[in-house]
Each structure stands twice: as structure tokens, then as C-alpha cells.
Amino acid sequence: MTNFPVQQIRADFPILAEKIRGKPLVYLDNAASCQKPNAVIDAISDFYRHDYANIHRGVHTLSVRATDKFEAAREKVKSFINAAQAKEIIFVRGATEAINLIAQTFGKANIQTGDEIIITAMEHHSNIVPWQMLSEQTGAVLKVAPMNMQGELLYPEFEALLNDKTRLVAVVHMSNALGTINPVKKMIDAAHAKGIPVMLDGAQAIPHIPVDVQALDCDFYVFSGHKLYGPSGIGVLYGKQALLEAMPPYQGGGDMIRTVTFEKSTYAGLPHKFEAGTPNIADVVGLGAAIDYLNNFGMDAIADYEVELLAYATQQAEQIKGLKIIGEAAEKGAILSFTLERIHPHDIGTMLDSLSIAIRAGHHCAMPVMDFYQIPATARASFAMYNTLEEIDVLMGGIKGLIEAFG
């Protein structure tokens, strides 16, 4: 294993010291949401204790301090994903709101009857339903690039879908249900060769691998704070400046305006045009703290460590008779989805919980993926930088115990 300071990291996450039914918590539900380090918890608490006020419009000291911390977090996000400018970073409630924002602004302005939107067969519902809604509103057509049984995109079929009617490609960077990491740079280049913009759903990728939006050359990138060891209820929409400036506002209200009369309103510039009303100030500060924390270790080092965790877990799982791994892409993040013969995934999740092992069981907001594999659900163990080989051993022991109990 790499010389990764996992024990030091674990000491920074107070919830990992919890015991469930008298047993140490083994938290393997990171694809749903990651736990929070003291640095994030303290940043939010300190902000409410010492700096809280509404931002941007106040001249008193607390408002100035709050504004400075809020905008400093925007700068941290900009640097973390290597955006060209801070005003290309829009704070939203999460990846879901970011995708809906793009659909209802960029989409309505640029997509008409007969136009096409391309997604993939492995998308989260958040990157399916908003485009279905837009298609119903505009008469556009949603096209789905297929995948194989390993959970890998069939790239030639994706490329064949690109045509003069395609107005947007909206694809997942890393699948939450399968762990597949898509060849997004190759996809972006192919789309751009035909003048088609690309949005990446990075909610699952952002805590696991380095992301450079300028190197990718994506037009939009979205992610949520809660999967990045930050607070829930906060997320990020990155968009290229020219695209964001051409898009109409998503919501109207305070702070997104330049002038208002009863006859007409004019709108503020970026990023404020898309941040109507009082934002989630403290949790933006918390997101900034999460990024600072991750930068202490480096995303490359985190990615390398998680590759080793996944390889170990996969090797152990393949030795268990009756366990079937769902999603075996060559390029894959730290997710192990599986089924067991004769044991429903919900029973797997419930019985592992009795051993203080937290996994997720269900369709993972990816029902079309389950339909593709002709299964109702999977059990999903998902790993993070604070997980250990010993925890994987506990998981595998728990699975073997279930199989013995079910005969």
C-alpha cells in the first residue's frame, strides 16, 4: 500500500469513532455522502459564532467579514477545479439544482423541437429527469448512448449519435451505481469537433479524482458539496463565461439584479445573476474548508490510495462464491456494487447494519442501470480516503456470515 496517512485522516473525522450496537462503525456509504472532518465542522461553527451576517450589500464589519469568507470560498473552488475565473463558479444547492439550472436556462434558450440531447445509459436520475422535462417542454429528443455488461460506455455508438441535431451532451463523469469513469476528454473533443457543448455531472468524481475543467475543456461541470467532505445543501455549477453570460437568469430576487422598476429589471453580472436571494452562506464557508482540507493531502494521493482500496476489495469479493460484482469497467472509481444469490440487497444492507457496517442497498437513483442488468437493486460498498483494508476485511467477513446464515 502507498504511504498514505489514513490513520491521521481518520482522527480528523469524529463520527468514525462512533459505535453502533456496541461495534465500531464501518462507514462504506460514501457514494451517497461522505462524512465531515473537524476542519469543516469547526469552520461552520466558528462562522456562526463570530462572523455571521448577510453578504454583499452590507457595509458593517460582520457583513464585510462574511462576504470576504464567502467569496474566498469561491476562489478556492475556482482553484480546486482550475476554472479560468472565479465568476465562472455559481453556488447552488447541489448538483441536481445545477443540472436543472442548465436545462431551464441554457436548454430553453438553445434547444427546440426536433433537437437532440445525448446522455448515457449509466446516468443518475438527476441527469435524466431534467432533460426529460426539457424535452417535454420543447419537443426535443433524448438520446441514450449504450453501455456493455462491464458497465463501460460503448464509445463508437456514442460518437455515432453526434449529429447536426445534437444541441448538448450531458454525461456522468463517474457512475454512482457502477463506479465507471467515462472517457470524458475523448467525448468532449468529439462533441466539440461538431460544435456541441458538453456538461459533465461530476458529483461522484469530484471527491475521488483530480478535476481540471480547463484541461477537460468541458462547457459545464456540476458537483455537490456533501460528497466532497463538505456540508449538504451546497453545490457548484461551473460554466464557461461566454455561455453563462448568454444564459437568462434561473430565478429572480435580491442580489441578482442591477436595477429594478415596476416596468423593467436589469440583471447583475456573473456570478450574481444566478444567485438570487440570501445564499447558504455558512455552508459555502464549510465547502471552502473542505477544499482546504483535501488540498493538505492532494487529490492525486487520495486517488491512488482509493485505487488500492478498490483493488483489494475487488480481489476479496471475487473469492466469495455467490457474490456477483455489478460494474467491472477497466477505468473505475472506489465503488463495489454487488448482489448475492438468494439474498435481496435490502436484506444485505439491514443485516450488515446489525454488524455496524453501513452500506447502501437499492437502485441508487439509477433505475435504468438496474433494468439493464435485470435486477431490482444492488448492495453498494463505496470507499473514501478514510477507509482501511481492515474495514474491507470486516465487510467481507460480514458478507460471508450472511451467506452462511442463509444456507
Quick rundown:
This protein has 407 residues and is α/β, with parallel strands linked by helices. The protein has helices spanning 6-11, 38-51, 61-81, 95-110, 129-138, 155-161, 184-192, 213-216, 241-246, 281-297, 299-317, 345-353, 367-373, 389-405, and strands spanning 19-20, 23-24, 26-27, 89-92, 116-120, 141-145, 166-172, 198-201, 220-224, 235-239, 257-260, 265-267, 323-325, 335-340, 357-358, 360-362, 378-382. It has 14 helices and 17 strands.
Question: What are the key terms here?
Answer:
alpha/beta, 2 domains, 14 helices, 17 strands, single chain, Aspartate Aminotransferase, domain 1, seven-stranded mixed beta sheet, four-stranded antiparallel beta sheet, 407 residues, 16% strand, Aspartate Aminotransferase, domain 2
Topology:
Layout (H helix, E strand, L loop, with lengths): L5 H6 L7 E2 L2 E2 L1 E2 L10 H14 L9 H21 L7 E4 L2 H16 L5 E5 L8 H10 L2 E5 L9 H7 L4 E7 L11 H9 L5 E4 L11 H4 L3 E5 L10 E5 L1 H6 L10 E4 L4 E3 L13 H17 L1 H19 L5 E3 L9 E6 L4 H9 L3 E2 L1 E3 L4 H7 L4 E5 L6 H17 L2
Parallel strand pairs: 3-15, 5-6, 5-7, 7-8, 8-9
Antiparallel strand pairs: 1-2, 4-10, 9-10, 11-12, 13-14, 14-17, 16-17
Please, could you describe this protein's structure?
The strands form five sheets. This protein has a seven-stranded mixed sheet, sandwiched between helices. Helix 5 (129-138) links the parallel strand 5 (116-120) and strand 6. The mean pLDDT is 97. The chain has helices at 6-11, 38-51, 61-81, 95-110, 129-138, 155-161, 184-192, 213-216, 241-246, 281-297, 299-317, 345-353, 367-373, 389-405; strands at residues 19-20, 23-24, 26-27, 89-92, 116-120, 141-145, 166-172, 198-201, 220-224, 235-239, 257-260, 265-267, 323-325, 335-340, 357-358, 360-362, 378-382. With 407 residues, it is an alpha/beta fold. It is globular. The longest helix has 21 residues, at 61-81. Helices cover 40% and strands 16% of the residues. Helix 2 (38-51) runs antiparallel to helix 10 and helix 4 (95-110) packs parallel to helix 5 (129-138). It has two domains: 6-30 and 298-405, Alpha-Beta Complex (Aspartate Aminotransferase, domain 1), CATH 3.90.1150.10; 41-295, Aspartate Aminotransferase, domain 2. It has 14 helices and 17 strands.
